[in-house]
Amino acid sequence: MGEATDSSAADQSRKSALIKQMAYDCGFDLAGLAPAITPAGYHHFLEWLNQGYAGEMSYLERRKDAYQHPEHVMSSVRSVLMLTLNYRTEEPPPVTGTEARVSRYAWGTTDYHKVIRKKLKQLSRRIREAFPDCETRGVVDTAPLLERDFAQLAGLGWIGKNTLLLNKSEGSWFFLAGLLLSDELDYDEPHHASHCGTCTRCLDACPTDAFVEGGVLDARKCISYLTIELRDQPIPQELRPGLEDWAFGCDVCQDVCPWNRKTPLSREIAFQPVETYAPLDACELLTLDETEYQDRFRSTPMSRSGRAGLLRNAAIVLGNRGDVSAVPVLKKVLSDAEPLIRGAAAWALGRLGNAEIQTFLEEQLSVELEPSVRQELQQAITEMETRSK
To answer: Which of 141, 204, 209, 295 is catalytic?
Structure first.
């Protein structure tokens, strides 16, 4: 009996090692195994939702019960294989003039979901070929799985004060993915320790003061949330200056992290920077109609914000940059069909304003019918009048 048990344990250990090796062979950078359980961070997630920190991301509230256990994603799950894929690349040129910054993960030509799903399908196929009775399901941040918690449980790192998973050798410049498995396996040692120490650089550097405390993010103030998830309504005026020159996402809390100083570069061709995406020409962006926007961004992460959201962001960046060469294009988009874009352009022109611009805004106010845009125009005019006194 003892020999049979030892043999079974050895087989399970070999199987676990082989599955992780398959993950590396498919191009993933880190791989770790965790049991399918209710993660320790689940109650923190519920409290975060209760505090309203998720903002308009109502899908999180709707699916909150499903995050309790991976069985809600795959009923037969026994193990969770957590994986990382590095997306750090060489730095693009710094922004100048009317250019806008884009979060590093969106510098490439292809949406990372597509890249990772392809690798997960390849990995799943190899596992089923080796172990026909093993059921699998791949997850790339769209299913209700607390990926960071399971990654920590699988020994891949710790959750930093910036709420991101950190790894000593990989930093935080990576995507997380999971593969749910129906077989029980040998699990990696959880990463219990935090290596942030007394460092608060990420908390101190946040332009919009979005961190309530270390490890707690109020998404309603986060630039990534504001520029991507809050895509169908105006960004609160008091937060717009904090966006600085970010048109899509934000990397500040990662850029300042000491653990990201010497991380390796990504081997993935699809993540390499494209000149027209990193940085973006905010003025040129405002000239795109819906067809042109789709042609350029359909296959990229920047498709998520939609044309109205991305052009709204570009207008805000131009207002923050203070370059008067943007005035003509901002004037032109005040006739755009999208109220969201018109409102942001009015705000930006108010920031760049002089007497001639004020007169133009007053003329626009006389013909504008949309209440939200009229409010933006009136406020811009009022602030210009106040500054001129």
So the answer is: 141
